[in-house]
Amino acid sequence: MIDVIKLTKRYGELTVLDEITEHISAGEKVVIVGPSGGGKSTFLRCLNCMEEPTAGEVIFDGKLVSYIDPYLHDDLIAVSATCKKLMAQGLKKEDAIEKIKAEKLLRKNEGGEFKTAHKHLEKEICIDLNVARRDIGMVFQHFNLFNNLTVMENLTLAPVHLKIKTKEEAEAKATELLHRIGLYDKKDVYPSTLSGGQKQRIAIIRALAMDPKVILFDEPTSALDPEMVGEVLELIKQLANEGMTMVIVTHEMGFAREVATRMLFVAGGKIQESAPPAEFFDHPKHPRLQEFLSKVIKN
Ligand SMILES: Nc1ncnc2c1ncn2[C@@H]1O[C@H](COP(=O)(O)OP(=O)(O)OP(=O)(O)O)[C@@H](O)[C@H]1O
Ligand SMILES: [Mg+2]
Q1: Which of 44, 193, 218, 290 has the fewest CB atoms found within 10 Å of its own CB?
Q2: Atom of ligand 1 nearest to the CA of 34
């Protein structure tokens, strides 16, 4: 479902992700742990197009979803559409690309900008600019709800804006999801009146409202008071049991052991260990993982 190929991210001199290659299959629940600053959040943000990789690619369901400069979106769509038109007239893809270049069919796209678009075409990877926003849900540590919108508006904004659902369909789905988590009576309130646990559960169903194929969670319980952690983990567990594909960064080791189909240890910009939870926790191989586990698992 997700193919990460030699994904590299640098901030100046600092290499945060160092040629990470990883495959995540449909239905997997991948839990990522690792030291602070190890690149876990950066990895999730690259999966979700919120960050531009320095090098490498993320392929989701056969489509390239690596960050694309928003200023190039129109150009990419134009190149892609022109290419498809020529192919419909019987040209092979390579010939269509050559014709676009030779006859300068897209004047605006000459030079550097055209090269970017061209790269995507040559790779025969379908360009779908909304794929990440539609199919990959994200849940953040600090909820990131829109505080100036009601709960119902938070839940319906993206599906309606991206034309995935009509307003009526989006409201019907939001209503169903609110009933599911027992918060239907909160539909018209603003997020500031909710507890942390309620906010996070709303954030989770906001991701679900898009009918995503995978949900990424970045420390979903780290900002919560201890008594609210359980209700959020319970909801995530339910989704896991229903078959949702998930990538979860968390420090909740008991939860990880229970829910994960696979554990990843990310440190120093690399995936240092990848193993099923029993093996990962009981027989860690990498010395840094052994040290990490001895620090985080107290008893
Ligand atoms: N926009 C940025 N500009 C410069 N450096 C950044 C930026 N974002 C992250 N970094 C650096 O990249 C490294 C990895 O950060 P990241 O947030 O991915 O780590 P993390 O594993 O999620 O850590 P934590 O467990 O504390 O959340 C850190 O050293 C961080 O300071
Ligand atoms: Mg982080």
Answers
A1: 193
A2: 21
User: Closest by alpha carbon to 207, among 216, 199, 220, 196?
Assistant: 216
3-state secondary structure of 153: helix
Give me the architecture of the 2-60+130-296 domain, per CATH. Answer: 3-Layer(aba) Sandwich (3.40)
For residues 199 and 202, give the distance between their C-alpha atoms in angstroms, rounded to a whole number: 5
pLDDT tens per residue, range 74-95: 666 666 777 788 889 998 877 8
What CA–CA distance (Å, rounded) separates 299 from 289? 17
Contacts of 172 (CB under 8 A, 6+ apart): none
What is the whole-number distance in angstroms between the Cα of residue 45 and the centre of ligand 1?
Answer: 11
* pTM metric for this prediction: 0.83
pLDDT digits (tens, 9 = 90+) for 142-195: 999 999 999 999 999 988 887 889 999 999 999 999 999 999 999 999 999 999
- Whole-angstrom Cα distance, residue 164 to residue 167? 10
Q: Name the residue of 42, 141, 142 to mutate for ligand 1: max ligand atoms within 8 A of Cβ.
A: 42
For ligand 1, atom 7, which residue shows the shortest CA distance? Answer: 11
Going by CA atoms, what residue is nearest to atom 10 of ligand 1?
11
Q: How far apart are CA 198 and CA 155, in angstroms?
A: 14
